UniProtKB/TrEMBL annotation, chain A:
Domain of life the protein comes from: Bacteria
GO molecular function: ATP binding; ATP hydrolysis activity; ATPase-coupled polar amino acid-transporter activity
GO cellular component annotations of the record: plasma membrane
Database matches in Pfam families: ABC_tran (PF00005)
Family the UniProt entry places it in: Belongs to the ABC transporter superfamily.
Membrane topology: Peripheral membrane protein
Keyword ATP-binding: yes
Localization terms from the record: Cell membrane
Name recorded for this polypeptide: ABC-type polar-amino-acid transporter
Catalysed reaction, written as an equation: a polar amino acid(out) + ATP + H2O = a polar amino acid(in) + ADP + phosphate + H(+)
Domain spans labelled ABC transporter: 5-249
Entry EC number(s): 7.4.2.1
Chief location of this protein within or outside the cell: membrane
From TrEMBL, chain B:
Domain ABC transmembrane type-1: 73-274
Pfam families tied to this protein: BPD_transp_1
Keyword Transmembrane tagged: yes
Gene name as annotated: yecS_3
Protein name: Histidine/lysine/arginine/ornithine transport system permease protein HisM
Cleaved signal peptide residues: none
One Gene Ontology CC term in the entry: ATP-binding cassette (ABC) transporter complex
Keywords from the UniProt entry: Amino-acid transport, Cell membrane, Membrane, Transmembrane, Transmembrane helix, Transport
UniProt similarity note: Belongs to the binding-protein-dependent transport system permease family.
């Protein structure tokens, strides 16, 4: 098994504030990798580094064996052009906490947009595929609705369909259920569970310990920019080794 | 006044589940009647003063649909539309340049806006007209070659002078619009692998339009009136024509009133258009649309008749 994501001593600062202080981890192909931790621990920042929405300051970050954001020749690093970064992002789907659907497009158009604009897929094909994906997330009947006419849970499922439309090899989830009403969380988690069963490699920043325990293959607990504890989710969640992990879990479980 | 409230004496015929709707005597606003009288008196006095002045009012209807006046109106409209076109296209371009990561393009845009906003448009017009002092010839290689004074017609002077100035103002309006779009939209678009330019064209600008359109309507109305400045560079738009006719017909002041009336008519028409355009762009963002003037008048009349009928029963 090759590593889909590999981080070696990843550092990231915003001005003088160091948010990531040396992250080492490895996400294997086909695995569901959960990142948990208190807010401000740097887990969302790390996720955003994976598709180069944030630039890392030190260390190395690889996706599918290739360096993120840079090209290495000898011992020199060359920054990638915007177009090269965009090319790599095609293969990495991302789902945001606040959905970020395009409000001026219908659900169907949201899903069709990137394949048409980025991959040059023709309209008819893109539409067929978009309908297929909306059906997969259980929203076939909402294709013509604008995001403002959908509930949060429905919007998030459209957002997942939109990311899947690019046929990514890796999916990033940034607290996908944190902005949802409690009764809508289940629908989104069901879709993610299906996706995990289909073999998709997923990195999930989440507060849903139930999901992590049930679906997750690996789990990392982060605090103050470092990995405190990692391992099998069932083990870490039921029998945490570190005091910090224990106190965090006692508050959220 | 208490008589009304005493009417609740007979609760027998009203169902007990819901208390009777309140019918109270509304507060009387005597101040409104007083201010209306004062305003009408002031208006009357002004109208009277103007009617007694040495102005030949009869000349205005005689010339209102005069051929030359109408062609002046046409040119004013043409100039307004073309200048706004230059303004909007240039404005979007400048706003994008200003927000670009490229320090050269953003400084160029900054400098452009600084210059064109910082000098009076009247001065700019005159400078364009007199640029022949700097450039004797215009030479675009094999395409075009002429003397500057031949090339820079009054129309072109007006177009460049007003259009380029407008672009600087539109740039700031467009920039505000672009900045109003949530950053998450750009992020989502980038995360899907879309390029900067596609993100801008497909995602950001369509959403920015809702913010850009209302102040642009304002700019159109402003532009319509500002075109009167180009009478100084000999372009025969509405004001220029009116002044010319005024000098030959011996009714200069009358023709100015005529021009003013035409400007009012035109801006009124544009205002109505702007109102409905804004209403159109408000769709989807606000739950209930503001009512149109017709609906407002209808609602007012209805409530008025309701009030009088309620008063009648009291």
């Amino acid at each position: 098994m090759t590593a889909m994501v590999k981080a070696e001593g990843v550092h990231k600062s915003f001005g003088l504030v160091e948010v990531l202080k040396g992250i080492d981890l490895e996400v294997k192909q086909g695995e569901v990798f959960c990142l948990i931790g208190p807010s401000g621990s740097g887990k969302s920042t790390f996720l955003r580094c994976i598709n180069h929405l944030e630039k890392i300051n030190a260390g190395r970050l690889y996706v599918d064996g290739e360096l993120v954001g840079y090209r290495q020749k000898g011992d020199k690093l060359y920054e990638l052009k915007d177009s090269e970064v965009a090319l790599k992002r095609r293969d990495i789907g991302m789902v945001f906490q606040r959905f970020n659907l395009f409000p001026h497009m219908t659900a169907l158009e949201n899903v069709m947009e990137a394949p048409i604009q980025v991959k040059g897929v023709n309209k008819g094909q893109a539409r067929d595929r978009a309908r297929e994906l909306l059906e997969r997330v259980g929203l076939a009947d909402k294709a013509g609705n604008y995001p403002s006419q959908l509930s949060g849970g429905q919007q998030q499922r459209v957002a997942i369909a939109r990311a899947l439309a690019m046929d990514p090899k890796l999916m990033l989830f940034d607290e996908p259920t944190s902005a949802l009403d409690p009764e809508l969380v289940g629908d989104v988690l069901d879709v993610m569970r299906d996706l995990a069963e289909s073999g998709m490699t997923m990195v999930v920043v989440t507060h849903e310990m139930g999901f992590a325990r049930e679906v997750g293959d690996s789990l990392v607990f982060m605090d103050e920019g470092v990995v405190v504890e990692s391992g099998d989710p069932r083990e870490v969640l039921t029998n945490p080794q570190h005091e910090r992990t224990r106190s965090f879990l006692s508050k959220v479980l | 006044m208490t008589v009304d409230i005493d009417k609740t004496d007979g609760p027998a015929d009203t169902p007990p589940t819901r208390p009777e709707a309140i019918k109270a005597i509304p507060v009387r606003h005597y101040g409104r009647y007083v201010s209306a009288v004062i305003a009408l008196a002031a208006l009357g006095a002004i109208v009277y003063a103007f009617s007694q002045g040495r102005i030949n009012w009869g000349a205005i209807p005689d010339y209102f649909f005069n051929d030359r006046i109408l062609s002046g109106v046409g040119k004013t409209l043409l100039l307004t539309v073309l200048c706004m076109l230059i303004g909007v296209v240039g404005g979007i371009l400048l706003a994008v340049m200003r927000l670009s990561k490229n320090p050269v393009t953003s400084s160029v845009a900054w400098f452009y806006i600084w210059f064109f906003r910082g000098t009076p448009v009247l001065v700019q017009l005159i400078v364009w007209f007199n640029l022949g002092l700097v450039f004797e010839y215009i030479n675009l290689g094999p395409i075009y070659k002429d003397e500057w004074s031949q090339f820079m017609t009054p129309f072109l002077t007006a177009l460049l002078g007003l259009g380029l100035n407008e672009a600087a103002y539109m740039a700031e309006i467009c920039r505000a619009g672009l900045l109003s779009v949530d950053e998450g939209q750009t992020e989502a678009s980038h995360a899907l692998g879309m390029s900067h330019s596609k993100t801008l064209r497909r995602i950001v600008i369509p959403q920015a339009m809702r913010v850009i359109v209302p102040p642009t309507g304002n700019e159109v109305i402003n532009m319509l009136k500002t075109t009167s400045l180009v009478s100084v560079v000999q372009y025969s738009e509405l004001l220029r024509v009116a002044q010319d006719i005024g000098q030959t017909s011996g009714a200069p002041a009358e023709m100015l009133f005529l021009a003013a009336a035409w400007y009012l008519v035109l801006t009124s028409v544009f205002s109505v258009g702007q109102y409905y355009l804004e209403r159109y762009y408000a769709r989807g963002s606000s739950r209930s649309l503001p009512s149109t003037p017709f609906q407002k008048i209808k609602a007012n009349l209805l409530s008025l008749s309701n009030r009088s009928s309620a008063g009648g029963t009291a």
